[in-house]
Amino acid sequence: MKKAFQFRIYPNKNQEVILSRTLSTCRHLYNDSLSERKKQAELNKLKKEFDVFPWGKPEWVNKYDQMLDLTATKTSYQKEVFSQVLQDVIKRVDKSFKNFFNGFGYPRFQGRNRYNSFTYPQMGFSIEDGKLNLSKIGNIKIILHREIEGKIKTCTIKKDIDQWYVSLSCEIETPIIPAEIKTETGIDVGLSSLITMSNGEQIESPEFLRESEDKLTHEQKRLSRKKKGSGKRNKQKIIVAIVHRKIRNQRKDFAHKTSRKLLDTYDRIVFEDLQIKNMMQNHHLAKSISDAGWNQLMILTKSKAECAGKVVELVNARNTSQNCSGCGNSVPKKLSERVHSCPFCGLEMDRDHNAAINILKRAISTVGTTGINDRQGLSIESRCSGTPKPFRVG
Ligand SMILES: [Zn+2]
Asked: From ligand 1's centre to the CA of 357, what distance in Å?
């Protein structure tokens, strides 16, 4: 697990001059490396346009080329900076291009106010006796207001207008202690609400997501009406991208909150192992799956459970909605039938609630004898609670 620790550092006048000069050297290197790569990209574009080298592939300058160049042609300013710090600058340029290819903005030249940090990616730094020792810079006063945990991996120096900070990225190895399973739940993915738990509680997929989706549809329609290549179209593209980003963040946020809430409440969580693709064939269901980020929720719950020593299990979803959770008999029903009503034992409850109980039962029946003995005294809560209750998230 990675964790960042930030501390303020207090350089003296002389050190501040060196820090500023280092920042400036890094910024120039950044802009020069970026410029080289941009020129190469433009050249490739021209070659393609005029078919100059129809037999050749486009040539690209990569980060290794640029690092080699750097070593061979260091300026006197660059010689004053720790070499890995300079190499990290080239990696940043490389990353900005990779981000661009992944749909982010085109890499920009960095002005004096924008470029505000440099990084020791491996070595060249240490902390001793209230001092941060930086290679080629000196021992700077640091106040450690909290204990640093784990092993320090990288050290980044940041300038914030008139103050300086160090950010240490640490790798923490935390021993995972398996939690004692005292509470457990089965979870069904339903049509009308996001999920239904085996105690009958439900988590609704959030209204704000649907609103954002409507907005996205609206803005995309507007985009399709704009003339290609026009400035207005480019502006509209940005608007669409911003709405996209908002939805992405809202989904992630909701999945985080829901998974945290589930793990705060339960030690063992059983999901049905559904092939999302199969479900996507149903239009309504597809919408609620995408709304809720069902897959994202499961992944997040699983990874959080691992850290907490808790258990997330997947069980076969076959017939979980058709079978009666009371007597086990098969009670066939169509997708539109929302209530499970058993002619054999008389059990009547919400369809998804019945399924959630079956899901939990299925996990219980698949564990070994010790597992079953372990959970003596555990009962599936409020089996016949009638109408499902909402489960608050947030
Ligand atoms: Zn029954």
From this structure: 13
Determine the distance separating the centroid of ligand 1 and the alpha carbon of 391, expressed in angstroms.
26
389 contacts: CB under 8 Å, gap ≥ 6: 200, 201, 202
Mean pLDDT rounded to a whole number for the chain: 82
Q: What tokens appear for 153 in the block? A: 């991996």
User: Distance from the CA of 55 to the center of ligand 1, in angstroms?
Assistant: 73
Name the percent of the chain lying above pLDDT 90. 41
- Relative to beta strand 184-189, strand 268-273 is parallel
State how far the Cα of 246 lies from the Cα of 250, in Å rounded to an integer.
6
Q: pLDDT per residue over 75-97, tens digit each? A: 999 999 999 999 999 999 999 98
Of 47-51, 211-215, 245-249, the range with the highest mean pLDDT is 211-215
> How many angstroms separate the alpha carbon of residue 383 from the centre of ligand 1?
12
Using alpha carbons, select from 68, 266, 116 the residue that is nearest to residue 179. Answer: 266
Say how many Å lie between the CA of residue 356 and the centre of ligand 1. 15
Tokens of residue 142, six digits: 């640091």
Question: In 151-279, where do the E strands start and end?
Answer: 151-160, 163-171, 184-189, 195-197, 201-203, 268-273
- Rounded to an integer, what distance in angstroms lies between the CA atom of residue 156 and that of residue 89? 12
User: Ligand 1 centre from 278 Cα, in Å?
Assistant: 28
CA distance 216 to 185: 35
How far does the centroid of ligand 1 lie from the alpha carbon of residue 358, in Å? 12
Q: How many CB atoms lie within 10 A of CB 28?
A: 16
**Locus of tokens 């030690």:** 267
Rounded distance between C-alpha atoms, residue 227 and residue 94, angstroms: 33
For 379, the token pair is 């009962």
Q: Could you say which DSSP state residue 170 is in?
A: E
The alpha carbons of the chain give a radius of gyration, in whole angstroms, of 29
- How far, in Å, is the centroid of ligand 1 from the Cα of 326? 5
